[in-house]
UniProtKB/TrEMBL annotation:
It catalyses: (S)-4-amino-5-oxopentanoate = 5-aminolevulinate. One of its GO terms (biological process) is protoporphyrinogen IX biosynthetic process. Homodimer. This is Glutamate-1-semialdehyde 2,1-aminomutase. It is found in: Cytoplasm. Its EC number is 5.4.3.8. HAMAP family: HemL_aminotrans_3. The lineage of its organism: Bacteria, Bacillati, Bacillota, Erysipelotrichia, Erysipelotrichales. Pathway: Porphyrin-containing compound metabolism; protoporphyrin-IX biosynthesis; 5-aminolevulinate from L-glutamyl-tRNA(Glu): step 2/2. The keyword Cytoplasm applies. Its cofactor is pyridoxal 5'-phosphate.
Amino acid sequence: MTNQEIFEEACQYIPGGVNSPVRAFKSVGEIPVFAKKGDKAHLFGEDGVEYIDYICSWGPLILGHNHPVVQNAIIEASQLGTSFGLPTKLEVAMAKLIVDSYQGIEMVRMVNSGTEATMSALRVARGFTGRNKIIKFEGNYHGHSDGLLVKTGSGALTFNLPTSPGIPQEIISQTIICKYNDLSSVIAAVEQNKKDIAAIILEPVAANMGIVPATKEFLTGLRTLCDQNGIVLIFDEVITGFRVSYHSCPDYLGVIPDMVCFGKIIGGGLPVGAYGGKKEIMSLVSPQGPVYQAGTLSGNPLAMSVGLAQLSYLNNHPDVYEYINKAANYLENGIKTILSTLSLDYQVHRCQSLLTLFFTNKPITTFEDVQTCNTEMYALFFREMLRQGILIAPSQFEAWFVSAAHSQIDLDNTLNAIKKALVKCHDALVD
Ligand SMILES: *Cc1c(COP(=O)(O)O)cnc(C)c1O
């Protein structure tokens, strides 16, 4: 069956034919690729086409598709049962692994998605401080819970839906939006809402408006501001956790939050999220404390087994990080070399193994900068890549994910395709 045929049927039964908006490929003028199977860095579509995959499930697949360690973990765990509704030793091992890996975090609660993690972390921060308001940043994405779906990134940004119908104004009014990498906007917001701000939540490396790292001054400034005003600093590391380093952003950037949210990599491709923090904050979570949060499938044994297998592998193989960072750097340099000969406006941003090619001449540090990008040019680029069997992010405002399974041949084939695609972009501009 062709993607077109499956998509037409999908659209009859599923809104937009997909279960998450960016999968629709709408903003790049395409229809979705329906995935059939994955093997290492390659994805096979239902249409029989083989792709080199840089979506990699949007981050979880740091070891590539179907890594034997991950595959064996799920086979073994499935033989023991799929869910118990009782605690398991696996959950203890997972919590301990996260605590051991992450500076400043003493307790962890497992949930089922990144959305659930950020939503729950904010509830705990509010319970802890006895305050209502939160600060988030333009272009940062923290999942789709009501209070966080304001000026958000990812699919909402791709489809130009900064906020959504269905969310009461009362809820949105508790969310204050500040400018990413602009400390003065945060200082002003804290000043205007003295003693009413429970938490500041951010992606320490923004990955949902394309890759835009926070500056060192911005992060250390936020840390100081939170300390001075009794505000809980929350790092949303759903993408960056165990990605930028095994020890995540405190190690990579040198700033330690009060709470952290995880997802993606810690589930190894199964639906998982987690939030954690210092003991004095996390002891407020039910049943130890009064802040309620629960989940029938939270800490699911299959998800824990797969997550633990992937994280333990990463812990024992630091060379994985060396490899993926070098591989992404190889792509970055290759792209820059190609573009140096073409008259296209661009910025290449790389943070470790995360990469974005922005089509703009403006250096990017803020959400406003990101919005200067030529999304039509990106769409053309995407389609030319797809035609050559390379799956990159189907949006200007998302990252490309390099995995340990991308071989040197994959990288060279990718650069050859990028060269052809960029020449097409260049020619389109000249015409
Ligand atoms: C993906 C993502 C989320 C949401 O996680 P889901 O598992 O999709 O609910 C939250 N924050 C960040 C930074 C993300 O990239």
